[in-house]
Design goal:
This protein is mainly α. It has one domain. The protein has two helices and no strands. Helix 1 packs antiparallel against helix 2. The protein starts with a helix and ends with a helix.
Length: 64
């Protein structure tokens, strides 16, 4: 996922260099979506870790 983000950034730069506004616009949208997906993925992983810790605490309390 990170590699595709960098490819999108490279395409954005190439579009700026050769002067293709449509390529620049599409690349910018693609990069924004990729960054949002990376952010969401990290938030979900963090939440999963927190939930796993809470469940483990509850199990420990039950067992004593």
């Amino acid at each position: 996922m990170i590699i595709t983000t960098f490819v999108g950034l490279a395409t954005l730069v190439v579009g700026l260099l050769i002067g293709w506004p449509v390529l620049v616009a599409l690349s910018a949208i693609f990069v924004l979506v990729q960054v949002m997906m990376l952010t969401a993925r990290s938030v979900v992983q963090r939440n999963d870790r927190r939930m796993a810790e809470r469940l483990e605490d509850k199990r420990r309390r039950r067992r004593g």
